[in-house]
Structures are given as structure tokens and as C-alpha cells.
Amino acid sequence: MKLLISSSIICAIAILLYCGSFSSIVTSLLEQYPLTAYNTSNSTAQGVLLKKSTSFFGLPLIPATFFASDRPANMTVPRAIKQAFLAIEQSEGAGARVRRSIGTPKLRNFSPFLMLDHFSVSPGAGFPDHPHRGQETITYILNGAVDHQDFAGNTGTIEKGDLQFMTAGRGIVHAEMPRQNSDGSANVGMQLWVDLPEKLKMCEPRYRDLRAKEIPTIQVDEGNVTIKIISGQSHGTDSVQELAYTPVWIFDITIKPGGKVTQPLPIGWNAFVYTLKGSTAFGVGKDQTTVGQYHNVVFEQKGDSVSAEVAKEAKEDGQFFLVAGLPLDQKVVQYGPFVLNSQDEVYQAMLDYQSHQNGFERAKGWESEIGKSMVH
Ligand code: FE
To answer: Which residue of 126, 163, 249, 355 has the fewest CB atoms within a 10 Å radius of its CB?
Structure first.
């Protein structure tokens, strides 16, 4: 969901290039997924993971080393909060309001996460034809619906409670246009950008729509806590497995006043919470911090669970997303919707997009139907 790239961009890239360096302390957890699993000898597929499935080439969602579901929650080590901050609302184009938290000066270099937008788009606005290369986007609809159309002929709509997992790989051009609701109400949702492992950057693009009815929903703490297991494992229940290529766990959690929950997470993964409603206390003991609406809460890597509770006297439920992902020990070089590992690769992406090659062949002469209302 980003800007159209015009032909003048190439002249400006030297100035505008944004480089995010991941040289610091990101621990390489790819040991959980031995590199021998990649077919690096296949020059056409650039290191596609060897799997039986012919349509999914990502890494396993649940690491082989994750045994927390066999352990009582009180045996885990809760993670401390590293930082918590309000996601400030800004306008992005006509009719779109966005609360961006990841991908701002407050939170960069947070692999594998590149960007998190909480968006609200009014009728008449939207995100017409634009390209992507090298990342995955995960879109979750909270209210309304979003139509989708791409240059490969894929079309569809994700409704309230649905998600779309899009692996851009070597290239996609698409439009994402929120529905024109008859009552004029805005379309609201979350979009998370996730980096792709270097060896999967140039894979074929892939979509996986996850419908609300496919998402297991469980209740714990005697019904005080409801967990939608969008991706990952909670209290012994698994989500659909083959979603994003980079393993990401996503839970939509609602806690009633007086309720509490401890969610185990894979060791060493980066984790954050985005708060949607109410006030929720995260962490335990003296580290416990109560956080209000529309905040991003980043957790330390140390520890293997996240604890959350809502005070008995609270007037409303607390609702938040808990997200964790495998950090990728690789350099990130991003220019808008192109996310690669070097500046040369970004230049190549721009050239490929402009000259309709190396994955962008189908962009030649293509224009989406749904995006036409926004163009010109
Ligand atoms: Fe997009």
C-alpha cells in the first residue's frame, strides 16, 4: 500500500534511498532452520526451500525447538517491555488516515518487521496500482472490506475479520481499494510488512487469503480471555500453517476486566503488541506497565512469553494484537515498496519495474479496473 513509482524516481534514488542496517545485535536464529534446507543450486529459483508442497516455499511456522505448549505458563520467563509509544495518526493521501508505528524513527531495525500501519480509509480513497518486490504484506480487516487486483489476473475481496498474506517475491503490481460503503463508513484495518529471507527475495509472488472462519478462536482464564489464533500456536491450538514465508505469529487477544493471559513465544523472536481498545497491563512484577489505546509495545528478546492482564475495575475490555517474528540476520535496503539487501538490488528493482523485466513483464500496459477511480 504505497506510492506509485514514477519514471522520475531513478534520478532521485541516490538522495532518497533509505538504508536500514541490521549489523547490530540481531541474533541469527536461522540455525532453527538449517540453510541446507534451501536448494541454492537451483539457479532459476534462487534458493527456494525444498518442501513437498509445490505452492508454499516458506519456513516452518512453528520452530522445531518450540516446546512451550508442553509447559505450564507459570514455568515461562515473561519478557520485559523495551519501549511503548503512541502511534500518532497522520493523513496519507486524500481520505486515508494512518497510525504508523513500525517504520518510523521510533521503531526501525526491528527484523523481520518493516512497517505497521493501522489504517482508516474513507470512501473515494484507496491505494491504486503500485509495485512491490522483496517483502510480504499481511493485511487484516477490522471494519469494512478491501478489494484487491493484480497484474497476474488475481482478484478478490477481504472482508471484516479476514486477512490477506501476500508474498511479493520478485515482483507484483497491484491495487488495494477499500470498499465504498453505502453508509459512508471508513474501512479500517492493519497492514504489516515483513521482510523476506535473502534466499527467498526473488521467489514467485504468492497470495493466501485467510478467511475469518479459518481462524481458530479459543477462550482461556475461565472465559475471560479470547484469543484468535491468526498465525502460530496458543494453548495447544495451531493456526493454518502455510501463510507467510517468513514465520510470524499473530494473535488478536481480548481480555475482560479481571482477566489475564500468558502467551509463550519462540525464543529469540522479536515481539510486539499493538493496542486497539481499553487499557492492558503487560509484563509482570515491578516491570508491569499499563498501556492505553493505539500504542506499540516492544518486548525484549530475552524471555519466552508475554503476559497481559486487565484490571478488575477497568470499564472496558482490553484488545490488542500480539505479533512475533523470526529476526533475519541480513541487511535491509528499502526504497518505498522495494525491500532488498543492497543498493544495487534496489536500483535493479527500479530498472526492472520501469522496463518490465525480471518479474515485472506483466506490468507492461497493465492497469487495474478497481484503481481507475483514483488515477488522474
Ligand atoms: Fe500494496
So the answer is: 355
User: What pLDDT, on the 0 to 100 scale, is given for residue 90?
Assistant: 93
- The pLDDT confidence band at residue 71, using thresholds 50, 70 and 90, is low
Same domain, 205 and 222: no
Mean pLDDT value across residues 60-83? 78
Question: Who surrounds ion ligand 1 at CB < 5 A?
Answer: 1
The answer to whether 62 touches 233, Cβ cutoff 8 Å, is: yes
Interval between CA 150 and ligand 1 midpoint (Å)? 10
The reply to whether 109 and 227 lie within a common domain is no
Per-residue pLDDT, averaged over 210-221, amounts to 98
Higher-confidence position of 46 and 295: 295
Residue linked to cell 532521485:
12
- In DSSP terms, 18 is beta-bridged to 334
Ligand 1 geometric centre to CA of 106 (Å)? 23
Domain count, the chain: 2
Q: How far apart are CA 124 and CA 299, in angstroms?
A: 38
| Same domain? 239 vs 253 | yes
Phi, psi (deg, nearest 5) at residue 345: -70, -35
| In a shared domain, residues 242 and 306 | yes
CATH number of the domain to which 35 belongs: 2.60.120.10
Q: How many Å lie between the centroid of ligand 1 and the Cα of residue 46?
A: 23
Determine the structural domain holding residue 26 and report its residue range.
Answer: 7-39+88-212+330-366
Q: How far is the CA of 1 from the centre of ligand 1 (A)?
A: 3
Read off the DSSP letter of residue 205. P
